[in-house]
Amino acid sequence: MFITVPRLSRVLQLTLAVIKPDAVAHPLILETLHEKILENNFIIVRRKDLIWKKENSEMFYAEHSGRFFYQRLVEFMSSGPMRAYVLARDDAIHHWREMMGPTKVFKARHTAPDTIRGQFGLTDTRNTTHGSDSVESAHTEINFFFPDFCIGRWMEE
Ligand code: ADP
């Protein structure tokens, strides 16, 4: 008798998670967030500490160019070290975004105090974390942060 075992990559979804400079500046917060990732059954597929130039920041957030907070966001995201992860688990995109909480910190603190932004967010811009919001953006964003990581090959493994 044969038992069919699905390939891991058919069960697992990938997402990009970023710990923004406000949190990386605090080693205890960074450590707490790393623990949260593990406690929530994510597999850490890749991890990288990096500092963006302003151009990287402008490119990544180009969809927001023209919004009132764009310059503030671009400056902030290139103001210090960040940590990026490629994470895998079932429903990874949705799960990480649930853990992040609402974009705006007032809302996060008042409606979702147990989320990462509810606990650690400082302002609407300095809101601790980023997460991809769709399969397409996860692929684009993983490629942006980890150009050497071949998603297609990982999916086939
Ligand atoms: P999310 O990061 O929750 O997916 P968006 O894609 O809408 O949210 O925005 C990208 C980032 O831009 C946010 O995480 C935050 O840092 C910043 N931002 C969004 N909206 C505002 C705002 N109204 N005021 C200041 N910064 C903002």
From TrEMBL:
One of its GO terms (cellular component) is mitochondrion. The keyword Lipoprotein does not apply. The active site is at H130. Keywords: ATP-binding, Cell cycle, Cytoplasm, Kinase, Magnesium, Metal-binding, Nucleotide metabolism, Nucleotide-binding, Nucleus, Transferase. It catalyses: a 2'-deoxyribonucleoside 5'-diphosphate + ATP = a 2'-deoxyribonucleoside 5'-triphosphate + ADP. GO terms for molecular function: ATP binding; metal ion binding; nucleoside diphosphate kinase activity. It is an enzyme of class 2 (transferase). Its cofactor is Mg(2+). SUPFAM superfamilies: Nucleoside diphosphate kinase, NDK (SSF54919). Residues 12-153 form the Nucleoside diphosphate kinase-like domain. PROSITE patterns: NDPK, NDPK_LIKE. Major role in the synthesis of nucleoside triphosphates other than ATP. This is Nucleoside diphosphate kinase. It comes from Periophthalmus magnuspinnatus.
